[in-house]
Inverse folding.
């Protein structure tokens, strides 16, 4: 049986390839990074030597898949045209850097449709993604854009599983696409994954909307905020309002055996990345 893919979001100071070493040191065999500053529009191109070294280290240590999280500035369904234009250019850069690095996944928050109807926001998000990837050849590439569910804040596209499914459906045929689900977002958006019965019902919704096969990554984050609060505040695994039992249930769910489980938990002290990876690894074994 293949070893479960459990990892963590790590930094890239010193070059993108250093992320592999950081992941391995944390006990991870998969990881997520930012390909540039998540709070800046402009980004430098990937250095071929850095990409080569990342590939070599990944092969050496058996690390993968790799996910890149798109910039927080990107809002592909903004009512403001200037924001959408910048977002399209920034997202294209994210795709190009992900392909250059050999990353399997690029995780995207679709954005906020404030000032529009949800239907208009959905249309703009799909059109903007299509515009961003126009002319890029994905043939033969092991790569997918993953639409991530959000915490359910007002006007945030993806706060409901149905919205994630709708956007994925809109993109089929024009982009390699899948889904990333975040445990904290699921919980604070009002989907019960804590109680056994609630987990069963929530997974029925996952199956009926996005489908199990489309889910490629689970962001494993406990929550500081209460169930249904719509507040996206991550906590260490087992120390928040979700609790360890829910993560154990998820990690043992064979319907997600193909997934990578990546923590985006706080780094309050040195070693926190390794600590959270270790908790997930222990829960997956017990």
């Amino acid at each position: 049986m293949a070893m479960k893919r459990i990892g963590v979001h790590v930094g890239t100071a010193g070059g993108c390839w250093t992320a592999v070493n950081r992941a391995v040191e944390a006990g991870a065999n998969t990881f997520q990074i930012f390909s540039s500053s998540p709070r800046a529009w402009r980004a430098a191109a990937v250095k071929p030597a850095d990409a080569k070294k990342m590939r070599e280290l990944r092969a050496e240590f058996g690390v993968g898949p790799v996910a890149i999280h798109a910039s927080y500035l990107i809002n592909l369904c903004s009512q403001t045209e200037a924001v959408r234009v910048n977002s399209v250019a920034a997202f294209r850069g994210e795709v190009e850097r992900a392909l250059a690095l050999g990353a399997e996944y690029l995780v995207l928050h679709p954005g906020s449709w404030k000032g529009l109807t949800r239907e208009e926001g959905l249309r703009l998000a799909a059109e903007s993604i299509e515009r961003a990837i126009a002319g890029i050849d994905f043939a033969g590439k092991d790569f997918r854009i993953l639409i991530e569910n959000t915490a359910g804040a007002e006007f945030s596209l993806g706060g409901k599983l149905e919205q994630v499914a709708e956007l994925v459906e809109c993109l089929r045929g024009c982009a390699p696409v899948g889904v990333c689900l975040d445990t904290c977002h699921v919980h604070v958006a009002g989907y019960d994954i804590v109680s056994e019965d609630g987990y069963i019902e929530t997974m029925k919704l996952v199956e009926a909307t996005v489908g199990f096969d489309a889910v490629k990554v689970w962001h494993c984050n406990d929550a500081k905020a209460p169930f249904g609060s719509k507040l996206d505040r991550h906590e260490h695994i087992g120390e928040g309002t979700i609790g360890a039992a829910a993560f154990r249930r998820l990690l043992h769910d064979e319907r997600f055996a193909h997934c990578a489980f990546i923590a985006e938990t706080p780094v309050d002290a040195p070693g926190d990345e390794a600590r959270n990876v270790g908790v997930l690894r222990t829960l997956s074994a017990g």
In short: The chain has one domain: 5-285.
